[in-house]
Task: inverse folding
């Protein structure tokens, strides 16, 4: 059948025609970011990260694998891990999003060349996985639990959709369609159960359905979800095969896999309204948000297996894989599109600033795989990894970030993240409007939103009232107004005219955040936050005190100071206390009452910026002295 | 050369002729345990654990591997991991120690048969490793870092020494000697650097030197220690190859490997007095004891790599491999033999009761590999593991435990662990004496020591004054005396006559133990201890309160009550508090002051006994409310 890619404004998750979505996308190509905080990051992503990652795909042999599979080189062994194809696919996706609204002939050509390699490597029957080409053809589809074949096709498909949406070309989409046809034929819905040890294809298939309107892809995605709990993956709980997905009641297993799976379930709900799956994603979200998310939005506490821990298992040395924070954003974004509920927006914002950004060095070319909340100084970012999932995942998320800033709905226009930008949107009645956000967040709490509808139009403007916000002053023009708040959004309904401005002033106090009393590891400890940012202390800022000795009283006054260091951050400083260095034994009888402390000046920096200076201990949670 | 095994009283670490040892062993065969706490455990080890483990060695194919290597079976594949030989060797060691002073014709015959399999599997050149027999001969000695070949020969040698010492037979010792000759020829001291990714052989070689007085084995052991830091193991810090051992300054890497290595270094010091190595073991011990040991004596905090963490990284969900606690005992025992310093004794006692015993179910037939300090109810013991290092390690330690109770020295007789038992000892002047300890520890603090020298003899009786002991009342006959304490031992010097009795009364208060202020994870939390035992709370004892909600005030009165449950334990009960169940968000603004609590009766049981009833949450550290 003939399909035409949706190009228009290059949505990331295209709920334009999703019957159960409350929100409809404003795509990457419709948004221009001009933000003090984000523009340098998005520019660096395009100018440094994406080119460097292409070189990594070259030097690791991941690209050579396609040449080898396509018969373009002889005598090469396979390079890397069995899912190394996905590194390249994620890079293609990142590069494609980066083209949105910003032509780059050279990158476009590199993409065409790379896609030609994929096409060359693809078998006549549509199968594509370079690990199983040449000398492992007989092993294809023999180990769904481990071998990531569908996972790789998932990333291929996501890359293809991004490429089609941002370039209008269907070269890669054709490759992906052939691969998905192969999967459909091999694991046909209602006939042959099939699902992958590492979810990814499910989400991609729903998006392929949205792109092509071919209902087979939605059926296949749903079939893959419903193939779980049938032993295809050996019943492994770690692989989310311990029960039918519709009966799963708690977040478990490998964090990225779990969240990709849940995100796909939300995708299906957006399309079908499936009430049973809706209940599943709701309860899994609650378990995630209430029991298994770090204060940074990082998820997947365990180093063993990159897995979720038990409820309230939120240790200092959390694993918090960068990819898992990204996966949590994928899940939350779909639930936000479904509901317009600000709890999901809050989670996205927290994870973006504090769960994903720390995964990236300020240079844009080194990465964290794990994001612990405390460290002794040996955890440092690296340019690449043997298992290189995180770096291109960060790149693709940042490249598509403009697509997460705005949506529309039947009743209006939504801003989701306060990022300096403007966008062209089409309201429900078809009216075109331009919306611009001006802000110095996360450093300063002033936000201005200017609306320019082509003609005066009545609609609701939905503006985030983040969970971190205390008082907010809202002005419409010069008038202070008191709009309603619904589900975490300020709702301003009126007939908007060109030039209308809303100005918000959020207070940005430094806050001490405590965890639920059942979180044992942070008992009587707090994290510092300001606005959407979680802070940490680094040894390099404390020449006279070991950061492990820092104690807060809870009454100190924190002074925010903008500094050009670390790419420009607001640092927080206070006169706090430090335990007098103690050379006593490791264990001793408990003595009630205050431990001896002395004055100490404490400086905190945003957690995302840690480990960009000289190595040393770091802590997010700081002990509080009892009053 | 001809060597004769030392049999006499079957010492575990035979420092009888070690010039730098302060203490000399009283062997396993010289001691008879008749202790309310320990006798059932040692009996169960002999009657349940050791026979069951032999069946495991049968059913896993570990024994078949030897038949296969010896050409006694055809067409069998290799079974298990590449170090599965060591499972069998450790079983042989355990079975051998269990024969000490207690003949068992059937077990003796099973040992003979098993040893015959080893002999059959051994190559003409002395090489013995069934993984590298038959189809992997060409791979021998090609990967010292990973393949555990020397490690297996180490366990073979330790088993051989135990077997020789307890049976007087040299069948297995001959096998081990041939294997060690092979290693000596292949990695000759001062010629070919060689050391194993998993230490073990080093300790065994020193013991082989002690057994045979052949100086080559001490040279080879020292050479293996000094082969580290030379790149043989790729410079890996995880494998302790990051620096010459003599320059290593901190405890690091895989916990069991590290501690086996350090124990071997202590062994060399015992024989040579090497001052440089002595400084190394001293500083590594300090780092271990002051920064990297759980309150239970468990070590190796990290699940990733079964490794040591950074200083003060002592989380609730510690890995604390059962084998690592055993390895810590090996290290500490050698330092105790070197010095007579009670800090090592204290560490042995803590690790034995709280680091090793929890690794064993009360049934004696299920095991923990990891020993976390908190759990949500899913961590349960198993009969065996794919990597089955821990179960036979527990078995061999318990079988040899009588050898850890007493020593002698130039100046006297030492009791190290208060375990109901009697022993035949030879004092420095050759006088034979019988010593008997009667006690109901760890439940009750009364201890009676009765001495029966063949003739009145002047010597010092050294009796532990444990770190956990507060006041102790000492009676000699009916007289209260006040003996000196030196390095954690009460020292009673006099001319002892047959029938002299010393009676001790230790107070056994319930204590709240806090960790050093730099241990972030236990800030404002305490562990309960009583005598040598660390306690924990289990959900099964708290039908009305979630154990995560328990809060102590630090002023509650703990009532010890002996119960027949759990094989007979003293449980501790107190009227404490519990946080009122909180359905608030996972993170919230910190509020100073007390959280709402309500009364709660709390019951604690010894940590070693956890997970023997219905599954449920468990915690060692409990939060304390500030006063």
Result:
């Amino acid at each position: 059948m003939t399909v035409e890619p949706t190009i228009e404004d290059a949505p990331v998750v295209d709920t334009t025609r999703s019957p159960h979505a409350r929100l409809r996308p404003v795509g990457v190509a419709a948004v221009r970011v001009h933000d003090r905080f984000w523009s340098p990051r998005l520019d660096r992503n395009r100018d440094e990260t994406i080119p460097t990652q292409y070189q990594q795909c070259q030097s690791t042999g991941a690209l050579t694998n396609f040449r080898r599979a396509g018969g373009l080189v002889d005598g090469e062994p396979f390079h890397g891990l069995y899912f190394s194809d996905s590194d390249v696919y994620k890079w293609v996706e990142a590069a494609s999003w980066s083209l949105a609204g910003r032509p780059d002939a050279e990158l476009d050509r590199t993409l065409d060349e790379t896609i030609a390699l994929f096409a060359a490597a693809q078998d006549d029957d549509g199968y594509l996985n370079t690990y199983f080409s040449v000398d492992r053809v007989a092993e294809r589809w023999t180990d769904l639990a481990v071998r990531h074949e569908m996972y790789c096709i998932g990333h291929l498909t996501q890359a293809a959709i991004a490429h089609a949406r941002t370039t209008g070309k269907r070269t890669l989409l054709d490759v992906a369609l052939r691969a998905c046809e192969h999967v459909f034929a091999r694991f046909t819905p209602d006939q042959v159960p099939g699902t992958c040890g590492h979810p990814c294809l499910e989400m991609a298939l729903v998006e392929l359905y949205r792109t092509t309107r071919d209902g087979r892809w939605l059926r296949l995605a749903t079939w893959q979800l419903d193939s779980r709990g049938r032993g295809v993956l050996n019943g492994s709980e770690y692989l989310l095969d311990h029960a039918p997905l519709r009966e799963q009641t708690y977040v478990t297993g490998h964090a990225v896999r779990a969240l990709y799976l849940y995100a796909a379930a939300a995708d299906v709900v957006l399309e079908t309204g499936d009430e049973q799956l809706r209940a599943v994603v709701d309860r899994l979200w609650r378990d995630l948000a209430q029991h298994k998310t770090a204060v940074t939005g990082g998820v997947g506490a365990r180093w063993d297996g990159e897995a979720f821990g038990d409820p309230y298992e939120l240790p200092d040395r959390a694993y918090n894989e960068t990819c898992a924070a990204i996966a949590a954003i994928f899940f939350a974004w779909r639930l936000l599109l479904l509901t317009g509920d600000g709890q999901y927006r809050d989670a996205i914002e927290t994870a973006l600033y504090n769960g994903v950004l720390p995964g990236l060095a300020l240079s844009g070319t080194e990465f964290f795989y794990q994001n612990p909340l405390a460290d002794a100084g040996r955890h440092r970012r690296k340019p690449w990894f043997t298992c290189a999932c995180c770096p291109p995942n960060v790149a693709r998320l940042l490249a598509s970030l403009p697509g997460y800033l705005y949506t529309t709905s039947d009743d209006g226009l939504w801003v989701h993240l306060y990022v300096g930008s403007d966008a062209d949107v089409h309201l429900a009645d078809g009216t075109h409007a331009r919306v611009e956000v001006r802000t110095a967040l996360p450093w300063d709490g002033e936000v201005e939103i200017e609306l320019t509808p082509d003609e005066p139009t009545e609609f609701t403007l939905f503006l985030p009232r983040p969970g971190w916000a205390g008082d907010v002053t809202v002005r419409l023009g010069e008038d202070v107004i008191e709009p309603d708040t619904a589900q975490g959004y300020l709702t301003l309904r009126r007939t908007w005219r060109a030039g209308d401005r809303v100005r918000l002033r959020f207070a940005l106090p430094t806050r001490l955040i405590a965890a639920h009393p059942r979180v044992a590891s942070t008992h009587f400890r707090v994290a510092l936050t300001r606005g959407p940012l979680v802070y940490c202390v680094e040894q390099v800022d404390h020449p006279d005190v070991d950061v492990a000795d820092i104690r807060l009283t809870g009454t100190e006054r924190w002074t925010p100071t903008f500094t050009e260091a670390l790419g420009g951050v607001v640092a927080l400083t206070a006169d706090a206390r430090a335990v007098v260095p103690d050379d006593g034994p490791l264990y001793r009888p408990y003595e009630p009452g205050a431990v001896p402390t002395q004055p100490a000046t404490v400086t905190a920096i945003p957690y995302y910026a840690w480990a960009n200076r000289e190595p040393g201990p770091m802590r997010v949670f700081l002990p509080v002295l009892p009053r």
Remarks:
- Residues 1-6 of chain A have pLDDT under 50 and may be disordered.
- Chain A is about 30% helix and 20% strand.
- The first helix of chain A runs from residue 38 to 59.
